[in-house]
Amino acid sequence: MSLSRRKFLGWMGAAGAGTLMNRTSAQGAANTHFRGYPNSYAVLHDITRCVGCRSCEAACNTVNELPVPDKPFTDLSVLESRRRTTAKTYTVVNKFPSAKQTESIGKYVYVKKQCNHCLEPACASACFVRAFQKTPEGAVVYDPSVCVGCRYCMIACPFEIPAYEYDKALEPRVMKCTMCHPRIQKGLLPGCVQACPKEALTFGKRKDILDIARERIRRHPERYIDHIYGETEMGGTSWLYLSGVPFASIGMREDLGITPAPELTSGALGAVPIVVGLWPVLLTGIYAISKRKERVSEEERREAVQAAIAQARQQAEAEKAAALEKARKEKETAVQQAVQKALEEAKKKAEQEGHA
Amino acid sequence: MSETTTVSNKPVLTPFNLIAGIIIAMGLVLTVLRFTGGLAAVSNLNDDNPWGIWIGFDLLCGVALAAGGYVTSAAVYIFGLKRFHSAVRPAILTGFLGYALVVFALHYDVGRPWRLPYPFVVQQGTTSLLFEVGACVALYLTVLFIEFTPAALEWLGLKRARNLVVQLTMVLTIFGVVLSTLHQSSLGALYLIAPSKLHPLWYSTYLPVYFFVSSIIAGLSMVLFESTLSHHYFGDKLDETHQRESLGVTLGFGKAASLVLAGYFIIKVIGLSTANTWHYLNTGYGAWFLVEMLGFIALPCFLYAVGVRDKNVKLIRYTAAWTVLGIIVNRFNISLVAFNWHLPSSQRYFPHWMEIMISVFIVTVGVLIFRFIVTRMPILYEHPEYHGH
Amino acid sequence: MDHTFFTLQDFMTFTKGVTYILMVVSLIGITAFWLFLSERDEDGTVDSPSPEHPGSTH
Q1: Which residue of A has its CA nearest to B80?
Q2: Residues of A with CB below 8 A from C41's CB?
Q3: Per-residue b/e over B231-260, b at no fewer than 16 CB within 10 Å?
Q4: What does the alpha-carbon distance between residue A229 and residue B38 come to, in Å, rounded to a whole number?
């Protein structure tokens, strides 16, 4: 598994040449603000004008060829319970007791609910197959031909809009309002806007719709809460609302903030490549350090063993030399003693012979 | 080794095998129901609650508890702690089976499982953290599989192939840690996109860090827990090295778990201060949050420490089981309890018994495969031909 | 590729796509680089990781 320097540099060169792509004019600086498609459409829902007739629901059902509901759209008793969008209903009208009661606002308030077609849709950000797309016309559309059915879009949507065909085994789809994208591309109005008898729904360019909304508030400050819901919520939506009563009292959350969904996850996503870039370096470093420590301690152990052996040998040599010396001295002493003894014996013998 | 005689002498109709058989049979029936009647036929998932226990338990807990693979192999091969070597193969096996089961479980949860490869081969949703989770899990499953093959190759007697794979250990270990860091943290990051739906005590910009750190705790504890079970049920398979190293592994992993739990506790408290969510502690959800913090993080941290200091193996093993439960509690809290906390109780989710049954079925399949492998392949012992690795 | 992005979503789809490709390239690259770095060590010097014993020196 060896890699020569030449081979390695060759690979790097080839890779480097391949990265010379066209630079885009994409804004990427930290303070860039994305303004969305310049001519996209939006719908204004003036809640003060809605009377809860459900004509919009009926039109939506027809235009999108949705299944026939259990109760007909003329049945207004359904308004007694709080409803949400379902796999068979892209839009619902709900009835709320009015938090304020004035001349212009009666006992009840009616609110239409459907996909808000956010400028930075959470569903699009969350989808791991890019099944959702914010179109230049403003509609957020869904492509069932790639959808895997993970339902993360349903987790992500702060308005709790997408529904799922749980009862289909083989081809379940996510279901939500399409802003009648095919119709608006042809210059027609969305089905609900077309059907509304009270002009509670107005379709136009988003910037014009905002102007209209601001104008209505300016002209009738007693009639409207001074806020266009959807102007900044979750970074802005393409379905905008005016109301005479506080939005929180009609089932519209005011605690969603203005941060667009993609920004909520961009921090975590941004950390991913840093881990990929740095972890191998750090881990290899730790490995190298632990290996080196092991090698050094192994060497030190070896040296200590060598030194101990050498010392033991030295000691053994010294002891041997001392023992040899001692033996030599003893031998010498013994020889001297033997000589002495022999001399004395010889002397004695000579003396004995001298006497005789 | 007496492995072959052990396997053929045991009776087939043990109580465990009977129960497992029933579970498998029920699982197969439910599988048919799932793919003929759709998700509605076997679950309580609905438009308000698109994710249930198959995500909360099978995916989130499954991935967290399979983390022992990367933690153990990092300890031994990167940090050089050779005395834990006997723990590597069981940990890799648990990890590999854990991740394989996660992918298996996903086939029940997603609407069109045959399209699971789509994010990689058809259209890439690169802004999605689920894309990142999917990519890393797929790659890591491959890494784990390769890391597992030496045991199988030794069993099959394929020496050259086995030696070739073993040479890849370092690279695979480093890739494994990189990939694990990414997908463990990204599972937590999945919830970053829904601040309006997750209770403020559990929602934090630090969610990815929390998930990553707790995966280390989960991995360490699962190795200890799995070792407790293996010692009890497969004790005859443990070789001398295993038994000799066992005490060291228990003390070493217990000490590490205690330390990491302490760090985890600190960063969770810091999360409260960063978001200034102290006042939520004084609510019903706050009480439950404190149960998680004190009962399942602070307590095991302390018990592990006592167990290590006193060399109390039994205490450490019990604490490991309790910690595993604590990880499950945490993942359940984020995905099921604290999620959708703002909805009225009539709209809250509780799993259908069939959802639970399918999860039990999936775990049973995993246990059976684990048993098959551990009783035949050199996981709890070293193959005599390759002794000394 | 030479166009402006109107939404953060489109911008991020593009940049993350490039980033993922870079991640794969850099993982392969750094592995190659590491092999290049440790090549000389495989000649049996004290430092070398022998094939049978990754992480040890014997």
Answers
A1: A290
A2: none
A3: beebeebbbeebeebbeebbbbbbbbbbbb
A4: 37
Q: What is the DSSP letter of B269?
A: H
Handedness of CA A167, A168, A174, A180 (dihedral sign): negative
Q: Residue B3 has what pLDDT?
A: 45
The whole-angstrom distance between C19's CA and the closest CA on chain B is 9
pLDDT at residue B5 tops 50: no
Size of interface A-B (CB pairs under 8 A): 180
Task: Write the pLDDT tens digit of every residue in A286-328.
Answer: 999 999 999 999 999 999 999 999 999 999 999 999 999 999 9
Is residue A7 predicted with pLDDT exceeding 70? no
Pair of tokens at residue B29:
């029936």
Instruction: State the average pLDDT over residues B202-225.
Output: 97
Q: Is A197 exposed, middle or buried (0-12, 13-18, 19+ CB in 10 A)?
A: exposed
Q: C54: which DSSP letter? A: T
Phi (first) and psi of residue B233, to 5 degrees: -100, -25
| Cβ under 8 Å to A: C residues 9-38 | 9-16, 19, 22-23, 25-27, 29-36
pLDDT band for position B12 (50/70/90)?
confident
Of residues B126, B169, B170, nearest to C13 (C-beta): B126
pLDDT digits 0-9 by tens, A104-155 = 667 899 999 999 999 999 999 999 999 999 999 999 999 999 999 999 999 9
Contacts with B194 from chain A: Cβ below 8 Å = 155-156, 158
Q: Do residues A159 and A112 make contact, with C-beta atoms less than 8 angstroms apart?
A: no
Alpha helices in chain B (DSSP H): 3-9, 15-37, 39-42, 53, 62-65, 68-73, 88-109, 118-121, 129-156, 159-167, 169-189, 207-233, 240-275, 284-290, 299-309, 313-332, 353-374
Mean pLDDT of the region B162-190: 94
**Is the distance from CB of A213 to CB of A237 less than 8 angstroms?**
no
Against chain C, the chains showing at least 3 CB pairs within 8 Å are A, B
By CB neighbour count within 10 A (0-12 exposed, 13-18 middle, 19+ buried), where does A322 fall?
exposed
On the CB side of B140, CA atoms within 13 Å amount to 30
Would an 8 Å CB–CB cutoff place A1 in contact with chain C?
yes
Q: A160: closest CA among A110, A86, A97, A93?
A: A86
Average pLDDT of the segment spanning B342-363: 96
Q: Which of A92-106, A259-273, B143-157 has the lowest mean pLDDT?
A: A92-106
pTM (2 d.p.): 0.88
- B167·C9 Cβ contact <8 A: no
Q: What is the CA A137 to chain-centroid distance, rounded?
A: 28
What's the N-to-C CA distance of chain A in angstroms? 106
| Among B126, B129, B386, the residue to mutate for chain C (most C Cβ within 10 A) | B126
The per-residue pLDDT for range B13-64, each reduced to its tens digit, is 899 999 999 999 999 999 999 999 999 999 999 999 999 999 999 999 999 9
CA gap B325, A214 in Å, rounded: 55
**In Å, how far from its chain's centre is CA A149?**
19
Contact A225, A244 (CB under 8 A): yes
pLDDT band for position A352 (cuts 50, 70, 90):
confident
How far does the CA of residue B102 sit from the closest CA of chain A (Å)? 14
Q: Rounded to a whole number, what is the distance in Å from the CA of A215 to chain B's nearest CA?
A: 31
Q: Which helix (H) or strand (E) holds C27?
A: helix C8-37
Least confident segment among A81-85, A222-226, A349-353: A349-353
* Alpha-carbon distance B48 to nearest alpha carbon in chain A (angstroms): 7
